[in-house]
Amino acid sequence: MRLLVTGGAGYIGSVVAAQLVEAGHEVTVLDDLSTGHADAVPDGARFVQGSITEAGDVLDGQDAVLHFAARSLVGESVEKPGLYWSHNLGGTLALLDAMHARGVRRIVFSSTAATYGEPERSPIQESDPTRPTNPYGASKLAVDTALTAYAGLRGLGAVSLRYFNVAGAYGRYRERHAVETHLIPNVLKVATGERESVSVFGTDYPTDDGTCIRDYVHVSDLARAHLLALGAAAEGEHKIYNLGSGTGFSVQQVISVCREVTGHEIPAVVGPRRAGDPAVLVASSAKIEHELGWKAERPALRDIVADAWAALSPNQ
Ligand code: UDP
């Protein structure tokens, strides 16, 4: 297939772009490099540096778009909500209009567990209430709402994948954020010597060890789901799937596994809670398993951390 990957120079977008190229697809990456890296665009993909609002200039008979380009920092979204609404919702509406004008009728969208907000039960199912607690989640949920509307009004075929905690690496493709907020890369930065200690954001949550529980999914497994979603996108329908491993790990458990994998003592300092963090976020991925046959091949946290760690080694 001929495909446009927006945000294909970012962490998840670059892994998906790499897997698409490996599967024999013709891939164009559109990325403004605001947070991505040109060297993360896989060999074999065409690269266009630009905004998603310029997608109309790039779309040229593609079969589908895989849309990753977005602002994705919860804290920043609280400080600058307008940025999130304009980039994530406004930018995507411009992309959808460009797709409509160019006759591109299928999209796979990078959605998020942040659309659910504070869950009422665990694991979270797709039919559960969506009550985002920050502008990031709200802007992603608004796109999901628009996709449902455009499927009905314009016959768009859309699949939204709601990611839980994506981690790990795929060969040389790894997480590289200028401002790193995520747990696993921050813990590994202690092992590489870039940080002295990791902060544990709260130990008074209603969990066994008092720290937050999250569902970590390997970026390679997550990427594979996008290839399945492409095949499942059907005109006039908007499908929504959670993507996680179905198992939760606490912050303390993640740090322990990182210690085991790296052999580094990784000092941890307990700090206050981070605003807006739900105690437990675990996905039910039963729907995508049942409907698309997706299954995590590397669900073990140890493997996820080991792959992230290997990608940080200079030999990669
Ligand atoms: N966390 C932490 N220290 C850090 C980064 C994150 O204790 O340096 C905690 C955070 O409060 C959350 C969990 O680790 O409970 C996962 O956070 P992350 O930012 O990786 O993902 P999120 O669940 O917010 O999408």
Feature tags:
single chain; 7-stranded parallel beta sheet; alpha/beta; binds uridine-5'-diphosphate; 37% helix; 4-stranded mixed beta sheet; 316 residues
Summarize the structure in words.
The longest helix has 22 residues, at 81-102. It is built from ten helices and 13 strands. By secondary structure, the chain is an alpha/beta fold. Strand 1 (2-6), helix 1 (11-22) and strand 2 form a beta-alpha-beta unit. The strands form three sheets. A seven-stranded parallel beta sheet has the order 3-2-1-4-5-6-10, with helices on both faces. Strands 7, 9, 11 and 13 form a four-stranded mixed beta sheet that branches. It has a two-stranded parallel ribbon with strand order 8-12. The two termini are 30 Å apart. Bound molecules: uridine-5'-diphosphate. Uridine-5'-diphosphate is lined by residues 165, 181-183, 186, 198-201, 212, 214, 251, 274, 277.
Strand content: 15-25%
Supply the helix-strand structural class: alpha/beta
Percentage of helical residues? 25-40%
- Distinct helical segment count: 10
Average pLDDT taken over every residue: 96
State the low-pLDDT regions, or none: none
Termini separation: 30 Å
Strand order of the largest sheet: 3-2-1-4-5-6-10
Rg of Cα set? 19 Å
The strand count comes to 13
Small molecules in complex = uridine-5'-diphosphate
Based on CA inertia axes, which overall geometry fits?
Answer: globular
Biggest sheet layout = 7 strands, parallel
N to C succession of SSEs: EHEEHEHHEHEEHEEHEEHEEHH
